[in-house]
Amino acid sequence: MGAVKADRGVGSAPVRRLTVLYDAECSLCTVVRKWLARQAQLVPLDLVPAGSDEARRRFPGLDHGTTLDDITVIGDGGQVYLGPAAWVVTLWALREYRPMAHRMATPAGARLARGAVLAAAKYRSAARSPQGWVDGSFHRGDGWSYHPQRGWTLDRAVAEAAAADACDSGRCASR
């Protein structure tokens, strides 16, 4: 499969089963996963943590780093859906939400789906790098925290993750 591709030329293949790759470390993603599991499904959904051994076993050629950045849905015929299209096809698989999926497949609906994906991405980003006051301490996304009694402290693991994220996005000083 190589890198994730939006169209693999299997548009005529029927979809009988979908695999939804979700971020198991994201609280919003796990809530959505539980919600999906409770819904009546017209097309069965396999809910698999993105980047997991199971995901790698099922889809060895997929770029699993990309699947952690954005919702990815794979059809049993090899179809790969990303971002807004992945949300729409997931809703399409659900009995109660199929009509909504058809509306979201229109140009106006696609803008709404994109907005929902961007809102979810913003939430995930904030959840990964909590900033602000939590439990009496102020936390910055770069690993530094301030506690009124202890002063400033550095969580090295958070700092290293923040630095790696900055370099991955081309914002680090060494590039």
The oligomerization state is single chain
The beta-strand count equals 8
Helices and strands, in order, run as: EHEHHEEHHHEEEEH
Number of separate helices: 7
Largest sheet: 4 strands, mixed
Structural class, by secondary structure, is alpha+beta
- The span between the termini is 30 Å
What is the rounded Rg? 19 Å
Mean residue pLDDT: 78
Strand content: 15-25%
Low-confidence stretches: 1-10
Task: Give the strand order, joined by hyphens, for the main sheet.
Answer: 2-1-3-4
Overview of the molecule:
The radius of gyration is 19 Å and the shape is elongated. The chain is of the alpha+beta class and 175 residues long. Helix 4 runs antiparallel to helix 5 (98-104) and helix 4 (83-92) crosses helix 6 (107-128). The protein has 7 helices and 8 strands; from the N terminus they run E-H-E-H-H-E-E-H-H-H-E-E-E-E-H. It has a 4-stranded mixed sheet, covered by helices on one side. Strands 5-6-7-8 form a 4-stranded antiparallel sheet. It is 43% helix and 18% strand.
Q: Which secondary structure elements does this structure contain, and how are they paired or packed?
A:
Layout: E1 18-22, H1 27-38, E2 45-49, H2 53-58, H3 64-69, E3 72-75, E4 80-82, H4 83-92, H5 98-104, H6 107-128, E5 132-134, E6 137-139, E7 144-147, E8 151-154, H7 156-168
Parallel strand pairs: 1-2
Antiparallel strand pairs: 1-3, 3-4, 5-6, 6-7, 7-8
